[in-house]
Amino acid sequence: MNKIILTSLSIIFTCNSIFGQTNEEKYAKDVKSIDAIINAYYDVVSGSSSDPWEFERDKFIHSETAVITRLDENGKAESHTLEAEYIPIGLSPKEDFYEKELKRTVSKYGNIAQVWSAFEIRTDPNTESNIRGLNSIQLHYENGRWFIDSWTCEMESDKNNIVTDFLNEE
Q: Are the C-beta atoms of 63 and 148 separated by less than 8 Å?
């Protein structure tokens, strides 16, 4: 009987420590460096259709006032909040989607950083594609961690070889 009680208590404490973690504890490694937060940035959007959305983790790596901007093929910008980004994602069935980073350059001054990041969109993590884009990601460092403040994305097109040009830069 005592063995059952001790085993039950062990399970309860184990589950409580796992499920009782704060976001700061769960995602602390994601925000300790620029490399870590950019890796987390790509990780939260990538996965198979059976993987759950990681909205909590994504929200944690962004600042509360984060702005997302996408440029269309004509260079016209459309900006919105992170919460607005989640609406169409949450309403659509999840599909296999992998955003693989191809190249990154980082400029840092004090507590701010600018990251240029070329990426490729895949439906299979091991199969290359020709769907590529370039992200401009702005971050700041505060209270011992990095935050993504904004990101702007432009996709490569027949008229615009931004990714090819970026990949060929020294």
A: yes
- Which amino acid appears at position 44 of this protein? V
| Of residues 115, 140, 143, 129, the one with CA closest to residue 42 | 115
Q: The pTM is what?
A: 0.84
What are the strands, taking DSSP E only, across 29-131?
62-71, 77-81, 98-109, 112-122
Spatial CB neighbours of 24, under 8 Å, sequence gap ≥ 6? none
If we measure between CA atoms, which residue out of 84, 34, 79 comes closest to residue 59?
Answer: 84
Q: Rounded CA gap, 24 and 31, in Å?
A: 9
As beta bridge partners, residue 71 has 77, 154
The pLDDT score that the predictor gives to residue 5 is 40
Strands, E, within 4-75: which ranges? 62-71
Mean pLDDT of the chain: 88
Amino acid of residue 102: L
Tally of CB atoms within 10 A around 78:
9
